[in-house]
Amino acid sequence: MFKNYLKIALRNQRKHKGYTFINIVGLAVGMTCCMLILLYTRHELSYDRFHKNRGRIYRVARDSEQSGTVRHVATTPSPLAPAVQRGLPEVKYAIRMLPQQHLVRYEKKAFVEERFFYVDSTFFKVFTFPLQRGHPQTALVEPYSVVITQEAAHKYFGNEDPVGKTLVVEDGQNFLITGTLEPIPKNTHFHFDFLASFRTLGIDETQNWRWRNQNNFYTYLLLTGEQSHELLEEKVDEIYEANTGQVMSRAGWKIRTVLQPLASIHLHSNLEWEIEPNGNAATVYILSTIAFFILLLACINFINLTTARSFERAKEVGLRKVLGAYRGNLIKQFLGESSIIAFLGLLVAMGLIDLFLPAFNSIAGLQLTIDYTRDWVLLIGYVTLALVVGLVGGIYPAFFLSNFEPIQTFKSPRKIGILGVTQRKGLVVFQFVIAIVLIVGTGVMNQQLQFVKNKRLGFTKEQVVALPLQGASLTQNYESFKNELLEHPDVLSVTAVYSVPGAGMSQNTFRVEGVPKEARPSMKTLYVDYDYIKTLGIEVNAGRDFSRDFATDAMEGFILNEAAVKILGWDNPIGKQFGWWNRDGRVIGIVEDFHFASLHQKIEPLVLLIFPDMFRQLAIRIRSRDVSATLAFLENAWQSFVPERPFQYSFLDQSFDRLYKSDQRFQQVWNLFAGLAIFVACLGLFGLTALSTTQRTKEIAIRKVLGASAGGVVGLISKDFVRLVLVSIIVAWPVSWYAMNKWLQNFAYRIEIGWWVFVLAGALALVIALLTVSTQAIRAAVANPVESLRYE
Questions:
Q1: How many CB atoms lie within 10 A of CB 480?
Q2: Which of 98, 179, 375, 504 could, after both became Cys, cross-link 118 (CB 3.0–4.6 A)?
Q3: Confidence of residue 15 (pLDDT cuts 50, 70, 90)
Q4: What is residue 105's three-state secondary structure?
Q5: Helix (H/G/I), strand (E/B), else coil: 399
Q6: Do the beta carbons of residue 461 and residue 652 sit within 8 Å?
């Protein structure tokens, strides 16, 4: 019986090659989208799940509130981890991590390493990063010991064994390599190349917890069991409060600690000072929803095309029933045929995935790979997907076809292969609502990213070169280096700063004239040198810039932005008393608000002050002429001052634009799947048009015999679908407006969605529908009516 059904199924496939091709391609595209998103979703959900104790590992973060300003920070004071481990029996291990950027040398090789981590000796008892060489219990116990990854070992030592060798870090610190690591998984929320002993830092654990240099550490806890982390947070708060004197409260909190489950950090944490940019759960949900709808559209298309030619199977069904076939047998036959189509679509989809996975990786910024010989879970998932698609796509046609009455199939088979009018209209509307929403989304995203790219930022980011201010010889001779650079005619201005816009900055509490101690405002703080405002082209709205003509500016001068003046409520801020840490001074200038962070964030109150100890970068404005020659000059000057360090530079505009890299990737992935969804929707419309023209073949023939023109016939067939697309437009507009407004809320500065976006999307959908319908309508209009009527 199975062999007979298989023969019939394959015979029908060969007989109707066009329908078979459309069915297989539609399902293949739908399954390709679904499987690509399945790979992406599985990758995003797998972060940090390879750790043996993942269910008992938590990161300690901080929430703080002061003067109405709320901050959510991923870092904690250094003494917190040992204090928690001493004071809480529920905590088995508490470790700290401090990422740093260091110059690392071995013989003649020197590289600036940005993933150099200082970690506690119990690091390997908390995290599962197996060592290839060395012992995890002792590798990081002694000061100046370091464990390196395979990539780092190959970079410095080639094929030599690195264990026992010495690396020179920064200005002469010798680190002994005590181990090498197995390859680090990509799906971890922090990546490193070097793990150095925390004891190297020589931190006194009795130091004041509130020192600014003590709050840059990442703290992780391994609990003894599956305790409630909410109750544990209160105990950590008590330890924090006992050592800092700051109020820790669950209700009216000033500062409170938050324990984040390790596996949730990648998708659900977007705090200040994250180790690396994390993923976004909303992105996973949105792309998964799009993939689901594309697959659903493909299944609908399969149903449409199957029922469109159901009258051709009607006599077969009637004859089988007359010969004794039960309805259950027929249902099995048609479900088997739909499953064959689904598995053929799966084979095509697997080929498409292999073909397009590199492009998808490039767009999404991933490194997804497929190995069917090892990844049995993925292969089983694909097979399950094909079975589900075959069942969903074939269940309605199976029950529909098997329900035919034998007498009706022989008497008038062409009258039974029609979906109900409501179902047909509903399918068209549903398909094009999805298509129009995706088109509107594409337009709005493009507008917003263009707005972000072109918006006036309050400073001039073009033609500014950023260099790291590192190495004792450079920091001690900064003024000499600056003067040498200024001798070049194409170097317009040079300044030093803690961080350029887009790179993050500190937050501090300030003493303000007329404001009591308990209400002191907390504001962003930027440590700058003279000429910073000039170099970046920031407008001074009141007062003046820092100037060497005023000797007190270096210790007493403060410049605020407009947002800071606004929260302080000052009408005339120039000359107001202002203080921070160990300095008291006055406000000497007010600058225009400028975007020192991405447009996702609202401009916050900002204080600029001169503080050379915190300079970390150089900002150099150059002319646009002969940039390569100017860069060559900068490199030569660099080598003359710090020959031991490689010359590394970046352009400020490129660095700032990278803040929107994840948005741009999301837009590209959205555009890709939007195009595929529209393609699948067009296949569905093509199927419905084929259904309509097939059922109206004799009507069209009679109209042509009575004098109807080809254009009239095309209009007759098209107008019904045009009405349905118009209904889709009306339904899709509010849906797309709501969805895009939710997406735009991710940006503090955003566009207003113009009405023309909806009109353009609707017009585009209408054109696509007309082009799709016309392919079948024209074919029916030019057909010879004699062929349709000759057997009547």
A1: 11
A2: 98
A3: low
A4: strand
A5: helix
A6: yes
* Cβ contacts of 704 within 8 Å, gap of 6 or more: 713, 781, 785
Q: Are 53 and 308 within 8 A, CB to CB?
A: no
**What gap in Å lies between CA 662 and CA 69, rounded to an integer?**
27
Whether 311 shows a pLDDT value over 60: the answer reads no
Alpha-carbon span 408 to 108, nearest angstrom: 89
- Between the CA of residue 761 and those of 286, 297, 406, 722, what are the distances in Å? 20, 19, 47, 15
Show Cβ contacts of residue 532 under 8 Å, excluding neighbours closer than 6 positions.
495, 496, 497, 538, 546, 608, 619
Q: CA of 96: how far to CAs of 60, 81, 85, in Å? A: 10, 7, 12
**pLDDT of res. 70:** 78
Output 373 or 448, whichever has higher pLDDT.
448
Neighbours of 3 (CB within 10 A): 7
Kind and range of the H or E element at 533? helix 532-536
CA-based nearest residue to 123, from 38, 194, 46:
194
Beta-bridge partners for 60: 219, 259
- What would the two tokens of residue 467 be? 């260099």
Report the b/e string of 23-37 with b at 16+ CB within 10 A: bbbbbbbbbbbbbbb
- The pair of structure tokens assigned to 416 is 């039974």
Q: Are 85 and 235 in contact (CB under 8 A)?
A: no
Q: Are 306 and 390 spatial neighbours (Cβ–Cβ below 8 Å)?
A: no
For 388, the token pair is: 């589900």
Segment 491-510 shows an average pLDDT of 90
Residue type, 331: I
Q: How far is CA 621 from the centre of its chain?
A: 32
The rounded distance, in Å, linking the Cα atoms of 667 and 686 is 28
791 band by pLDDT with thresholds 50, 70 and 90: very low
Stretch 33-49: mean pLDDT, rounded? 90
The token pair at 194 is: 């070097």
Q: Which of 22-31, 35-44, 149-158, 193-202 has the lowest mean pLDDT?
A: 22-31
Tell how strand 491-497 and strand 464-468 pair up. unpaired
Other beta carbons less than 10 A from residue 496's beta carbon: 26
One-letter amino acid at 542 equals A
**pLDDT tier for residue 418 given thresholds of 50, 70 and 90:** very low
- The closest of 12, 35, 21 to 683, measured between CA atoms, is 21
Give the pLDDT mean for 98-118. 92
What's the DSSP call for residue 70?
E
Query: What DSSP character marks residue 602?
Result: P
Residue 355, SS3 per DSSP: helix
Its pTM stands at 0.84
Model confidence pLDDT, tens digit, residues 605-617:
999 999 999 999 9
Q: What is the pLDDT of residues 150-205, one digit of tens each?
A: 999 999 999 999 999 999 998 788 999 999 999 999 999 999 999 999 999 988 77
Antiparallel, parallel or unpaired: β 91-106 and 69-73: unpaired
At 13 the pLDDT is 61
Strands (E), 536-616: 540-543, 557-561, 577-580, 583-591, 606-610
- 């029609």: which residue's tokens? 418
Give burial (CB, 10 Å; 0-12/13-18/19+) of 696. middle
CA–CA distance, 342 with 9 (Å, rounded to integer): 13
